[in-house]
Every structure is written in structure tokens, then in C-alpha cells.
Amino acid sequence: MPLTPRRFVSRQEMLEAVAQRSAALMEEAVAARGRVMLALSGGNTPRFYLPMLGARFQRWDVVDVRLIDDRWVCSHHADSNEGMLRQLLPQARLSGLVNDAEGPLAGLAEASASMAACPEPWDIALLGMGGDGHIASLFPGTGTIEDPAPYCVAVPEAPLHPRISLSAAALLRFQHLLLILTGEDKLDALARAERDALPVRLLTQASERLEIFWSP
């Protein structure tokens, strides 16, 4: 099944739609079970939609916020996804993937054990995509999509910093996958995902649970 996005005329309109949809799904999960698990990525887009989400959803004491991926740096580093998310959502209870190990390979078991302890169902993952078609830190040519790990994978060869990421299998456990894209280049990458075997093609396996939001 092709990956077909909902198109918005502006980034502001798209991000408001993402925030509204996220808040509604979170409210549904809390009403059903008294808790919700929300997994977040890094990048620039969260700097805009997370304040919108924070304004629409107030019950952060029942939210388990998890990282989808991160660079293997301390949380105070400028390139840390965890550090950025803690600044954007200071009211949230957030658990990162990076630990005290020397690198992602050494820290993989601890990170995976933390994810394994998360009660199911896993509710919502908010994903971005790079212009090369990568999602999370599952990059083309690294073999991470084919890795059978149930929870986390180490990506020591990632650009700039070694990384740790939820695995392909872990991403597919989520009940709702929201993919947020901006720009014509990402629309083009999405259109050729299957033909060029880009990592984002993984999401076709969850097409009934996937919502794609795009703006110029």
C-alpha cells in the first residue's frame, strides 16, 4: 500500500492538526487505561508542535514519554534529543535511551531492558523522516531495518554521533504512528520509498495504524 499523506497548505496548519490528533489519542488512552505511552523523536519540528501539544493536553502525570532515538551524548549536550525534549516538556515524566555506558553497543542491553519493561499496549509514536528516507535512526545502508532486535538497536556508524534507536520491530508495536513531513524533497522520498528500498517503507506494514501529515 502506498504511503499517502494528508496535505496542508502551511506548516502551522499541519502542526496544529498533529497536536490536536495527538491530544485526542492521548485522551482516549487515558480514558481507557488511566495512562498513555508517547514516544517522541528529535529534530527541529518538535520545537514547534510540542508546545502546541502541551497546551492541548494537561494530564502529564499519567504520560510515559519515551525517546524514539537519540545521539549517544549526555543530556546536556546541544545534540541530545533527550535534553531538547526535557526543555520542551518540563512537565513530563520522560525516560531516555542513553545511559552511562561508553557507547550504544555497550549500553544496548540496558536500553532494551527499559523498553521491555514498558507495559503494553504502546500507544503513540510521533516520527519524522529525513530527506534520505530514514526514520528514527534507521538509516539507509546500515542494516538496521533488517535487524531482528525486539526493542533497540545501536547505530555506531550514524552521522556525527553514534546513536541508539528503537528497532523496526519496536516501532511496529505502536497502536498509532504519526509521521510528520515538510518540504517537497521529503514528499519525493516518500513516493519512492518502495522503489528505492528506503527505511520509511517499513511503515507500510502498519498502514492501518499510520497517519502521515505533510506541508510545504
Structure description:
This protein has six helices and ten strands. Strands 1-10-9-6-2-3-5 form a seven-stranded parallel sheet, with helices on both faces. The protein has a three-stranded antiparallel sheet with strand order 4-8-7. Helix 1 packs across helix 2. The mean pLDDT is 96. The protein has a single domain (6-128, 136-183, 203-215), classed as Rossmann fold. The radius of gyration is 16 Å and the shape is globular. It has 216 residues and is α/β, with parallel strands linked by helices. Helices cover 31% and strands 20% of the residues. Strand 7 (152-155) and strand 8 (163-166) form a beta hairpin.
Secondary structure blueprint with pairings:
Layout: E1 6-7, H1 11-33, E2 36-40, H2 46-56, E3 63-67, E4 69-71, H3 81-88, E5 93-95, H4 104-116, E6 124-128, E7 152-155, E8 163-166, H5 168-171, E9 176-182, H6 184-191, E10 210-215
Helix pairs in contact: 1-2
Keywords, separated by commas or semicolons:
alpha/beta; three-stranded antiparallel β-sheet; 6 helices
Question: How would you summarize what this structure contains?
Answer:
The protein is α/β, with parallel strands linked by helices and 216 residues long.
Question: Could you give the order of the helices and strands?
Answer: EHEHEEHEHEEEHEHE
Helical percentage: 25-40%
Distance separating the two termini = 23 Å
What is the number of helices?
Answer: 6
Query: Could you name the CATH topology?
Result: Rossmann fold
Q: Which sequence of strands runs across the widest sheet?
A: 1-10-9-6-2-3-5
What class do helices, strands and sheet pairing give?
alpha/beta
Tell me the number of structural domains.
Answer: 1
The number of strands is 10
Strand content: 15-25%
Q: Name the average pLDDT.
A: 96
Report the principal-axis shape: globular
Low-pLDDT sequence parts: none
Q: What is Rg? A: 16 Å
CATH architecture: 3-Layer(aba) Sandwich
* Main pleated sheet: 7 strands, parallel
CATH class: Alpha Beta
